[in-house]
Each structure stands twice: as C-alpha cells, then as structure tokens.
Design brief:
The strands form 2 sheets. The chain has a 3-stranded antiparallel β-sheet. About 45% of the residues lie in helices and about 20% in strands. The two termini are about 25 Å apart. The protein contains 5 helices and 5 strands. With about 110 residues, the protein is of the alpha+beta class. It folds into 2 domains: about 60 residues, Arc Repressor Mutant, subunit A, CATH 1.10.10; about 45 residues, no CATH class. Strand 4 and strand 5 form a beta hairpin. Bound molecules: iron/sulfur cluster (SF4). The site of iron/sulfur cluster (SF4) has 9 residues, from helix 5.
Length: about 110
C-alpha cells in the first residue's frame, strides 16, 4: 500500500524529507505523490513546510511521530499546515500576510 510505504519513509526522517525525494524513492509520478501526501496530511499523520530547493518551491514532509495531536493542537493544523502565527516574529500585517492567508485557505479547504 503506497500510503503505508510513504508514511514509513517519512517516519524514518525525523528531520523531514523533500517531497521530490520521496517521489524518486517510491518511483511514482508527482500527481500520485501529491495525492498520497494530501491523504496523509488530512489524516494528521504528517505535516509539511514550504521550502526552496535549487531555486524551486517544494515541500519538506515531517512525521507527526507522537500518539496524535491533542484536540487543542488539531485546531491549529489545517491540511497538514500548522498555524503560521505560532512563534512568528515577523512584523505583523494580518490583512496582507501571505502565510496567514495560506493557512486560512487550508482551513477552508479542510472544512469543505
Ligand atoms: S499574521 Fe502573518 S506576520 Fe502576523 S503573526 Fe501571523 S504569520 Fe506572522
């Protein structure tokens, strides 16, 4: 089962692993890889963060290696994205913050 295989790979990389690396390891195309990643995030089994690799936007996938997020933390995770305001030290303009906007869109997508 590809979901189980991907989860095992991610769980063995506590420091995170690039989505493109997983795709190569599993020898699957990017569409299938994205579908599996989204499923695992929706089940709160992994989380992902944006990352630039060789000038291209990609994702680093991290295990959520404890028994599961608490109810309180689940409210801060949308589609595998943790609330960007947590620990943020940027000058804050919430109306135009792309990080916050991205997270709000993830909340809306998850509830749809
Ligand atoms: S709204 Fe944006 S800038 Fe403000 S705390 Fe949240 S992530 Fe940081």
């Amino acid at each position: 089962m590809p979901e189980k295989e991907m989860l095992e790979i991610i769980n063995s990389h506590r420091e995170g692993i690039l989505q493109s690396e997983i795709r190569k390891l599993m020898e699957i195309d990017s569409k299938k890889c994205s579908r599996i990643v989204n499923k695992l995030m929706k089940e709160h089994l992994i989380r992902r963060e944006d990352e630039l690799a060789e000038g291209r936007k990609t994702y680093r996938l991290f295990p959520i290696g404890f028994t599961g997020p608490s109810e309180r933390h689940l409210k801060l995770i949308a589609n595998g994205i943790f609330s960007p305001c947590t620990g943020c030290d940027l000058e804050c303009y919430p109306e135009t913050c792309y990080r916050l906007n991205g997270w709000v869109l993830a909340v809306i997508a998850e509830e749809a």
